[in-house]
Amino acid sequence: MNQIPERLAHVQERIHRAAMAAGRSPGEIMLLAVSKTKPASDVAAAFGAGQRAFGENYLQDALPKIRTLADKDIEWHFIGRLQSNKCADISRHFTWVHGIDSLKHAEQLSSHRPAELPPLQVCIQVNLSGEVTKGGVDPTEVEALALKVARLPRLRLRGLMTMPDPNARTTSRDAAFAGLRGLLESLRASGLDVDTLSMGMSDDMEAAIREGATIVRIGTDIFGPRD
């Protein structure tokens, strides 16, 4: 745990260098610390070092941490696969959802979002690598889904998310990041107010930042290998 502040500082420096190399402001890029499988004490250590946004993949692991750390001003992001029987709890306990890939799940999140909370910030997950085991909508379906999600009353559509095949060649990975940026630009041209590209992890965040990432999701390089 005592290495977490040092690792966090190293990741922040990587983001700063990558942004400057791309001619961007480092302030445009949110670091999302992916705390899945890690205990609340690790999250607290990163929070103490200044980190505020944390990503969780599994609702059953996230809820105890959210309750334990309820006194801290943490912004919780759900970044896992959505399931209908979990949308209600996700909509109540998270600020962001990165993985919408169906109108059904979006409608469930909207209907369960408490009226006293701000709208749930959401991204549509896009499957740009064509992996059958990975979630996300086909690129050809993004605009139609985005237009419907943007009309739901308790959600705010922020942008798009993708996870390229980690075993893909560098050129394929970079093409996926560029493709997501192109899709976001197309949504803007359609009149949607979207500003977020959630892409890039520990091994490829520099390439993602070059292509315009506004959220990078980093786990291992902050918390160490997964349990």
Can you characterise this structure?
With 227 residues, the chain is of the alpha/beta class. It has a single domain (4-222), classed as TIM Barrel. The chain contains 9 helices and 8 strands. It has helices spanning 4-21, 40-48, 59-68, 87-93, 103-112, 142-149, 170-189, 205-210, 220-223; strands spanning 30-34, 53-56, 75-78, 96-100, 120-125, 155-161, 196-198, 215-218. Strands 7-6-5-4-3-2-1-8 form an 8-stranded parallel beta sheet. Helix 4 (87-93) packs across helix 5 (103-112). The radius of gyration is 17 Å and the shape is globular.
Question: What is the fold's blueprint, element by element?
Answer:
Elements lengths: L3 H18 L8 E5 L5 H9 L4 E4 L2 H10 L6 E4 L8 H7 L2 E5 L2 H10 L7 E6 L16 H8 L5 E7 L8 H20 L6 E3 L6 H6 L4 E4 L1 H4 L4
Features:
globular; TIM Barrel; 17% strand; 227 residues; alpha/beta
Would you tell me the overall average pLDDT?
95
Structural class: alpha/beta
- Runs in which pLDDT lies below 50 for 5 or more consecutive residues are none
Question: CATH H level: which superfamily?
Answer: Alanine racemase
Strand order of the largest sheet: 7-6-5-4-3-2-1-8
The N- and C-terminal alpha carbons lie at a distance of: 14 Å
Briefly, what is this?
With 227 residues, this protein is of the alpha/beta class.
